[in-house]
Structure formats: structure tokens, C-alpha cells
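STRUCTURE:
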């Protein structure tokens, strides 16, 4: 009986499970890799998003730089002086420079796209009005429409730069900012050639062309850019201003010098383009049309290429950023100084101006990376806007001041800009010292 009852009872089996730390580690490692891969996967799909962002500075530059080659023709057609024709560039840039900080604040309060989209609409619409002003030979209407364009321009590139900071981090952010600078520079390369080509149709064709590019950029921004949601609500004005004050209290010295360096670089670049545009049509060169546009594009092409490479290389390396900033400014100062005497051969002269532009290409991505990294997302729009504002003012005063200096002598032009570059080099060398790893 005992045997029978024991058989009726279910058998109990001891189950022993061996777990391996190695297997567990391997699985967790694979999990981390999968998570990493999934986090990187969207970055591959963001190519169109970066392209959409890059169209914004491209369109902005087309709206200004395409006008540079036709300024001598504009003077003749409207029967105005060289200085008056330069105001077509200056008034646009001054208006933009003054409105940019307001646009930056609004983008921090609302959203980047809420400012960027209306800005592109205003910019393109005022471009059409500029075209009709040129057709009607109305100088004052042209100035007014260019000022309205400046208001639209204020909400473009600075907001795009802040949006890059919102969308990307670390090395990706530096690379994206390098692409933004390269796109900005590419516009400067294409613009003189495109402006000269369009002038073959009719001299004012450039005014009607860039609203078309503006419309394409507007569509790209609307449909291809997905702005991240904000975790916090908009900060109150008083608290916002206090945050900005804290930023300048902590980092004000190097920030202000960086702003100055960016403005000086753009002042020099646009001043040199204005200088070249005028002297190439005079004796002994007598170069006009597309050939003039292609020559104007040479220095800027050097800047664009180096800006893209610099943005890709520096990542967040503060040591490299400092070296390249100083080397860039040293190249600018040395080449512009040499141009005081070596300006009789066009080949040598263009070569020196290209070296200066290469220096600018080294400098600008470094400044942009440092400036966008110094503040939190909530104040980034204002800081990048202040930076862009001063760059615009540099663009604004380049052509008229170069025009005034040209009336004194061509040598005076390069004594002035080489001195400016040298002083800027010393300021950056001694006061802009980023950490080994920029935020």
C-alpha cells in the first residue's frame, strides 16, 4: 500500500537554472546598441531637415549679394551716385540688424517657426515690391521696399541658427552649424554669378528672382522641419531679461569680442566685394557681366569651402576652436596688409583677397559654435540674434565706408581693413579662451 500511494503522488523535480553574467552583459550591450542605433536612425532621416534649414541663409544672402554686381548699373539707370546705390544694401542690413533682437525674443517666447515663416513671407513680398520700384525707376520706393525686406530678413538666419541648437547636440550641432555657414557662403558664391546672368536679361531681373527662391525656402521650412516641443512655457519678460544679464555678467567679455569679430569679418567681406565690383568695370580691367560675377565669386568660394570643413572638424573641441579662430584672423590681417602694396596684378590681388576670405571661413563657424553653446535653449534665440544683428550691421556699413575710403585712395582702403583685422586678432587672441570642451 505504501508503495502504491507513493506512486500515486506526483514526482517533484528540482529545476536548476544557470544564468550567465556574460550573456546578460551581452544582451544589455545589444540593447544599448539597439537604443543607440534607434537614436541615430532619425539623424539619417534628417538630411532633408538640414537642407531645409540651409535654404534659409542661402535665400537671405541671395536677396542681398545678387544686387552687388548690378550696383554700378543701378547708379547709371537711376542717375544716382555710387554712395546712394550702396544704400540699397545698407538700409536693408541696418533695418535687419535693428529688428533681429526683437525676432530673437519672439522666437524664444513663441516658437522658431512661428517667427521664421512670416519672416520669409514678408521678405519675399517686399522683394517683389523692390522689383517694381526698379522698373519704375523710383529710388525712394526702392529704399522703402528694401527696408521692409530687412524686417523680414531679421527673422531668418538667426532663428535658423537657434533652431539648429534646438534640434542637434554636440558634434552634430557643430556640423549642422558648419553647413549653415557654408550655405551662407555658398549664397555669396552663387549670388554674383547669378546676379550677372540675370542682368543679361534685364538689369532689374535680380530683384524679381529671389522672391521665387524665397517661396521654395518657405515651403521647405513648413513641410520639412519638425520643431521639438518645449518642455517649459514661455518665460516672463523680466525673468528673460535677467537671464540675458546673467549670461553677459558671466561671459560678457568674450561674447562681446566674438560679436565684434563676426561683425568685422562681414564688414570686410562685403566691403571687399563692393570694392571689386566697382574697380573691375573700370580701366585697365573693363570686366563686366558674367566674367565679373565669376571673379567676385572666387574669394567667397574659398570662404565657403573652409567654413564647411571647419564646421565638420571642430566639433566641440575648444582648443581647436581657439587655434583656428586666431589663425583665421591672422590670415585676414596679413593678406589685407599685403594688398596695400601688391594690388597692381589682378591675379595676385584676387589671391590675397581669397586668403583673407579663407581666414573668414575659419573664424565664423568657430564663433557660431561658441556663441550658440553658451546659453540654454530658452535664451538661445536672443543671443544668436544679437550676434546676427551685429553681423548685419557689419554688412550694412561695409559698402558705404569702402566707397568713402575709395574716394581717398585704394591704399587707404586696405590700410584701414588690415588695421581692423589686426586689432580684432589681438582682442580674440587675449580675451577669447574657450574651455577644452565647448558646451
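SEQUENCE:
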Amino acid at each position: 500500500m505504501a508503495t502504491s500511494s507513493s506512486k500515486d503522488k506526483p514526482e517533484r523535480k528540482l529545476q536548476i537554472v544557470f544564468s550567465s553574467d556574460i550573456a546578460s552583459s551581452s544582451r544589455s550591450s545589444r540593447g544599448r546598441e539597439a537604443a543607440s542605433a534607434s537614436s541615430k536612425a532619425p539623424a539619417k532621416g534628417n538630411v532633408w531637415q538640414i537642407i531645409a534649414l540651409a535654404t534659409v541663409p542661402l535665400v537671405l544672402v541671395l536677396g542681398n549679394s545678387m544686387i552687388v554686381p548690378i550696383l554700378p548699373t543701378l547708379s547709371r539707370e537711376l542717375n544716382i551716385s555710387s554712395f546712394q546705390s550702396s544704400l540699397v544694401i545698407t538700409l536693408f542690413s541696418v533695418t535687419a540688424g535693428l529688428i533681429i533682437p526683437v525676432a530673437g525674443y519672439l522666437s524664444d517666447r513663441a516658437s522658431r517657426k512661428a517667427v521664421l515663416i512670416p519672416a520669409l513671407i514678408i521678405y519675399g513680398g517686399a522683394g517683389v515690391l523692390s522689383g517694381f520700384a526698379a522698373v519704375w525707376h523710383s529710388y525712394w520706393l526702392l529704399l522703402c521696399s528694401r527696408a521692409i525686406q530687412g524686417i523680414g530678413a531679421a527673422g531668418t538666419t538667426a532663428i535658423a541658427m537657434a533652431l539648429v541648437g534646438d534640434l542637434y547636440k554636440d558634434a552634430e550641432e557643430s556640423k549642422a552649424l558648419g553647413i549653415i555657414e557654408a550655405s551662407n557662403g555658398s549664397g555669396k558664391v552663387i549670388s554674383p554669378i547669378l546676379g550677372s546672368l540675370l542682368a543679361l536679361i534685364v538689369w532689374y531681373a535680380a530683384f524679381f528672382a529671389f522672391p521665387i527662391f524665397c517661396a521654395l525656402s518657405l515651403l521647405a521650412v513648413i513641410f520639412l522641419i519638425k520643431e521639438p516641443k518645449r518642455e517649459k512655457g514661455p518665460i516672463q519678460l523680466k525673468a528673460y531679461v535677467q537671464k540675458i544679464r546673467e549670461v553677459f555678467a558671466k561671459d560678457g567679455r568674450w561674447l562681446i569680442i566674438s560679436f565684434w569679430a563676426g561683425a568685422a569679418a562681414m564688414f570686410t567681406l562685403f566691403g571687399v566685394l563692393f570694392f571689386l565690383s566697382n574697380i573691375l568695370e573700370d580701366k585697365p580691367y573693363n570686366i563686366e557681366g558674367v566674367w565679373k560675377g565669376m571673379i567676385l565669386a572666387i574669394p567667397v568660394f574659398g570662404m565657403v569651402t573652409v567654413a564647411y570643413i571647419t564646421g565638420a572638424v571642430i566639433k566641440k573641441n575648444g582648443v581647436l576652436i581657439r587655434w583656428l579662430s586666431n589663425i583665421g584672423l591672422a590670415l585676414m590681417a596679413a593678406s589685407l596688409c599685403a594688398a596695400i602694396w601688391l594690388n597692381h596684378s589682378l591675379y595676385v590681388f584676387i589671391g590675397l583677397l581669397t586668403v583673407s576670405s579663407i581666414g573668414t571661413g575659419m573664424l565664423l563657424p568657430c564663433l557660431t559654435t561658441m556663441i550658440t553653446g553658451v546659453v540654454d535653449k530658452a535664451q538661445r534665440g536672443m543671443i544668436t540674434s544679437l550676434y546676427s544683428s551685429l553681423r548685419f550691421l557689419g554688412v550694412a556699413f561695409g559698402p558705404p565706408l569702402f566707397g568713402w575710403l575709395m574716394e581717398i585712395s585704394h591704399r587707404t582702403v586696405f590700410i584701414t581693413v588690415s588695421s581692423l583685422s589686426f586689432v580684432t586678432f589681438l582682442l580674440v587672441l587675449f580675451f577669447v579662451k574657450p574651455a577644452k570642451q565647448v558646451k
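REMARK: Confidence is low (pLDDT under 50) at residues 1-10, 12-45.
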